[in-house]
Amino acid sequence: MVNPIRIFLGDLTYNTVGMSTASFPLNVGYIAAYCKKRFGSKVDITLFKYIDDLEVSIYENPPDILGVSNYVWCHRIGLEMFDLARSENPNVITVLGGPNFPQDLESQQSFMEKCSNVDFYVPIEGETGFSNIIEEVLSVSELGYKKEILFKKPIDGCVSRNPDGLVQFSMPKMRIKELDEIPSPYLAGIMDKFFDGELTPMIQTNRGCPFTCTFCVDGADTVNRVNQFGLGRVSLELNYIGEHIPKSINTLQISDLNFGMYPRDLEICDDIVGIQKKHDYPQRVLSTTGKNKKERIIKAIERLNGTMSLVMSVQSMDAQILQNIRRSNISIEHMLALQPTIKKVGLVTNSEVILALPGETYQTQIDTLKKLLTAKLDFVEVYSCMLLMGSEMNTPEQRKKWNFKTKFRILPRDFTTLRNGKNVIETEEVVVGSDTLSFEEYIELRTLSFSIFVTNIGIIYDSLLKFLRQNNIEVFDLFFQMMKQIDSAPPLVQKIFDSVKNDMVDELWDSPEDIQAHYQEQKEYEKLLSGEAARNVMQYHNALVRHSCMDEWTQFAGNVVFGLLKRKKIISYELENQLKNIINYCTGLGHNTLGNDRMSTNPEFLFDYDIENWINDTTNKTLVQFKFDKKRTVSFQFSRNDSELIQNEVERQNINSGMGQALKNIPLQKQFRKPKAISQNL
Fold first, then answer.
1. CATH architecture designation of domain 5-169
2. How many CB atoms lie within 10 A of CB 26?
3. Mean of the pLDDT values across residues 34-48?
4. pTM of the predicted protein model
5. Which residue in 422, 529, 536 sits closest to 15, CA to CA?
6. Domain ranges (residues) in the chain
7. What distance in Å separates the CA atoms of residue 661 and residue 80, rounded to the nearest whole number?
8. CA within 20 to 30 Å of 79's CA: 159, 173, 308, 428, which one?
9. pLDDT tens digits, residue range 179-232?
10. Domain 200-385, CATH 3.80.10.10 — does that match?
11. Three-state secondary-structure class, residue 186
């Protein structure tokens, strides 16, 4: 009997200083299940998520075929695994797959020349392309195996080099329309070993995206048709996950590109609710929500009882920029019009914005931020524009058209040291300027986005923002003036802003090669391990504010608001007193939230107004209408359960490399103290 083909498939994550991508390797699970269905005992397939596991297995018993997923966060480590596998087995067949592959022929040729250790690339659906490679390997093996035979002609669904070294590519005849042709890797038991208490289960209910955004690798015309897995199958997978999930994991990730947008998604939500009742899981659902059909998405979120949030991926509010990125078929105004409905049902609203898109100017970014803040969104998060391999924006034509100025930076937490002593670091290319946006403007806008990131936080600053709006002052002016008046801020706050701007500049490099060379030196690599270098600028400094100077930050915000009232010439003793009460209220909520002594440091303030009921009032009454008959002392405290939740997350991280991640993992309503009236004063 002929030995089966030994196949390793990896969708790798770094875990050097924390898990970089904590989801199950579902993509390679699908490939394994499909290939087992086609070839049965002719293949022996092992799946990998952790780099160390794959590295050891290659040394101990190298595979005949090594396939690795290619995303921006695991590109370089995949190539390193190919080098290792080839050193242990010169005849190994290496296959890279995933959407981060150039669209144009010239760039594809360059990619394959640069990645000389890649035999095949599968750019669209891995199941068909990868199984076609196996079919060819089985065929040539019968003739007396010579690896070179595989490259004489293109293989359907794969990119390779012909004997002359030129790229050859055969488009797949069609995508898999009936996705149930792919056996479930969950129901087949293929994913069982990944229920390890560290990784988050992922499911997929459909594939494809009807939108064509040029910055996104899923915006290509080749994948704009949406195909679906059967509802019965999805239900079985959810139940399987619920029955096998460890107690340490409370999250489910849905990898659909537009979950909630389709009518059947409501049925899937009902299934999830059933799992929640049966298994007390999931307590949190992560998903990219749809861009249109927001009413239906809201219904989906309602059914999930607050375990899933709505993300409004507006990216820009400028009509011309939206046209530049082929996003004009997404109704931004429709998104924002639903905000009151979303808030009415008690949901948190999030909006993502991309800085330095094609045609972006300083003013268009300002206008976008103003509109979103006027719409009262709870979170407005600004991301730098990444030039992703495989996106239309990252083609030579688009680069030339918009004259992008780019730099490279390290992906936080995405680095490791291999057994051969080599340090491997993942990088990304970001746009830092263009003909319409200078580098100096880019840095100032990022600094402004940090001011918004920290201060536009629901719960803690709700009262301050409501106060501004009731006095006809744009909340944007608060964040803008905080950025402009840094010199008047408390010393600790000044230090934070200075650190933010320095890190925004220092994190940028001219090339990935410069980064790799620099961090081969152990003393420099130690800075990555400690979190001193290559940290997420926004998350790190937000955590630093929370940890070291939240009281000072709140006082600074209050001083800026006082200045805005004076500028508007509406300041009065009554308004000044209201503002002092509000600042004390915000201070109480945010005081010492990350300290180990948070339970014993409960601040107390004397209040003239019932701020809590004023915040929750929907009739737009002013604060003066909530004045107490007698002053009241209010203490701000954590419940025992909330404090323990915070402590558990804090202990898993450290202030340099992971405190920002800890804050992301803690529900917002549990991050701050609660007001508790303790006396009524004469």
1. 3-Layer(aba) Sandwich (3.40)
2. 20
3. 97
4. 0.91
5. 529
6. 5-169, 200-385, 585-680
7. 28
8. 173
9. 999 999 999 999 999 999 999 999 999 998 888 889 988 766 566 688 999 999
10. no
11. coil
